[in-house]
Amino acid sequence: MSAADQPAPVHEIRERFGFLRRSYAMLIKEFIQLRRDRVSFAMIVMLPVMQLMLFGYAINTTPHNLPSAVLLQEDSDLARSILKALENTAYFRFIYEVHDVDDFDNLLKSGKVLFGVEIPRGFERAVRRGDRPALLVAADATDPVAASAAIGSLGMVVQTALKHDLYIGDPPEMPFEIRAHARYNPAAVSSLNIVPGLVGTILTMTMLIFTALSVTREVERGTMEALLSMPIRPVEVMFGKIIPYVLVGFIQAFLIISIGVFLFGVPVLGNLFLLALLSTLFITTNLSIGYTISTLVQNQLQAMQMSMMFFLPSILLSGFMFPFAGMPAWAQYLGEALPLTHYLRIVRAIMLKGAGMHNLHFDALALAALMLVAMTIAVTRFRRTLD
Amino acid sequence: MNGDSGIAIDVKGLTKSFGGREVVHDLSMQVKRGSIYGFLGPNGSGKTTTIRILCGLLTPDSGEGTCLGYDILKDAEKIKRQVGYMTQRFSLYQDLSVRENLEFVARLYGLTDARGAARDMIKRLGLSGREEQLAGELSGGWKQRLALGACTLPNPKLLLLDEPTAGVDPKARRDFWNEIHALAADGLTVLVSTHYMDEAERCHEIAYIAYGHLLAHGTVEEVIAKSSLSTYTVTGEDLNELTATLTGKPGVDMVAPFGTSLHVSGRDVAALEASIAPWREKSSLHWQKSHPSLEDVFIELMGRSKDNFQ
């Protein structure tokens, strides 16, 4: 026995900076554990990349073979060649040809087609006369993303198609007017919203789950008993458990935004540094909420369930799925209490509108307030004993 | 501060219930500084609960006392700095290596040189060469040593060890106790709970607790003497038959086989002797009046406490 024959070297104990030291001890421990948990570590990179690829491409804004109808009120060569041009784009697939307005409306209403083109009587003659007649385009905008992109592409497609049509010649401008009518949902959502929205959604999910399991895991593994018998305070445990994941979240945010910019061509018009700063705030807020969940529940299963309970409203009420302004007042109040709501505004404003800090005061403060509330609940709810 | 008095633990009237079931009842005890105090009792007797109250992990429903001179109700944080608590279940991080676990503890307690302290402890524990092994991959005996190392790392004044040698082989158990004696010799107070009688006999003082009640305490000799138990050791043939016949006879409180012999014990000497008289003359049996062992005393206490408290 070595202990008996050699005197134990005495190591001094320092009382200063106890808070930082103990938080640091916890932080190092968490980092090592994270590094050793290969599955979690892989998830940090794989989860955001896979989700972004999946959703980014699944939510493809380029329409493809949209089921369409044509209301043909004149059977002219020009009308035929416009339809042909539209079909050649592969955006539209004309499956109905009707001659009656009621039939046309019913097809759209029933959802049999998402898109309709109406060629009015005397269209060709009006074009030749240079009257710029209207080509009515009706889109079912209940699927606003598909509809708006299809409408947007229409003008160019038709013009390009007709350029090669010797029958018309090479007109200096559109020989006719396209009157687009987005039915049912006139305020179509911009497709660029999706990638910035995904940044917030993916971060909410991963950050929440990382910390939601942290305290219950220690309880279930039996390590909490030893931890509580040591002189560490609840705030120190919390910081030690949150800070490593701030870095993880930062890496994830970087990955998602990079993919968004380079693969999906989403611009970052605003200040990148401001985006990083406010993203870090958002990450920390979510981690605090996850940590709070983990101090409220008894086991890891409950932690997962509670995270989902928080995650679903985040997706549905934050303005990610549905336009925030369209929600009833009570739902908007609920939405204001969710960090994702504020982050979506921030990230969309910075990336797409080039907004600066002076535009984003309110949302940044709201995020900070939510973070402090969560941390306060977590610290007071943290059980310092096994009672 | 009364930290210099000769008493490390001094508690009175500790009571703790879980869900209406009283786990510790009116428990009072004193532990001298520098002594090894054995805490004995059957499973579920309240040993772990008492230890957890002492180190501030549980708050007693009633009762008061001091641990290292600090109030157990108010100064839990100060107590934690000077107490090393080794839990019954291995509670270090299984996914951290030996070195990382020790460095974590060292940093948490604020040792100026956490790496150095961990290195010295690895040497002291004889774990050199295994420092990068994950704690979860160590054998039972090594886990216990590591756990002991971790709780002695910040130089505590009091060690609370909750069944530290459960499931550890005899050699590792002996090493472990040598280490505890070495630590006590350095002035450390050790409170250790155990099931093993041989371990109880290595303690300076012991306390026996059953169903939340402290039934006996003192040195091993004192506990045996206070039990007023008379014991006869019988050797010979057909001991199984004798066990069946004697059990339940007036004055015979306990009949327990010990290897090739039988211990027949009772508190009432006269009644015991009257009951065994018919068999004492048998030539096939050899009777000898002996001292009860600590185990006899405890099993008798346990049997008695069951009658009293259940």
Question: What is the overall shape of chain A?
Answer: elongated
Summed over residues and divided by their number, the pLDDT of chain A gives a mean of 81
Secondary-structure-based class of chain B equals alpha/beta
The shape of chain B, in one word, is globular
For the largest sheet of chain B, list the strands in their spatial order: 6-7-8-3-9-10
Number of strands of chain B: 14
Fraction of residues in helix of chain B: 25-40%
Describe the protein's architecture and organization.
The complex is a heterodimer of chains A (about 375) and B (about 300). Chain A has about 375 residues and is an alpha/beta fold. Chain A contains 16 helices and five strands. Chain A has helices at about 1-5, 20-35, 40-60, 75-90, 100-110, 125-130, 145-165, 195-210, 215-220, 225-230, 235-265, 270-295, 300-315, 330-335, 340-355, 355-380, and strands at about 65-70, 90-100, 115-120, 135-140, 175-185. A five-stranded mixed β-sheet of chain A has the order 2-1-3-4-5, with helices on both faces. Chain A starts with a helix and ends in a 6-residue tail after the last helix. Chain B is about 35% helix and about 30% strand. Chain B has eleven helices and 14 strands. In chain B, the strands form three sheets. Chain B has a six-stranded mixed β-sheet, sandwiched between helices. In chain B, strands 2-1-4-5 form a four-stranded antiparallel β-sheet, with helices on one face. Chain B starts with 6 loop residues before the first strand and ends with a helix. The mean pLDDT of chain B is about 90. Chains A and B meet through helix 1, helix 2 and helix 10 of A and helix 2, helix 3, helix 4 and helix 6 of B.
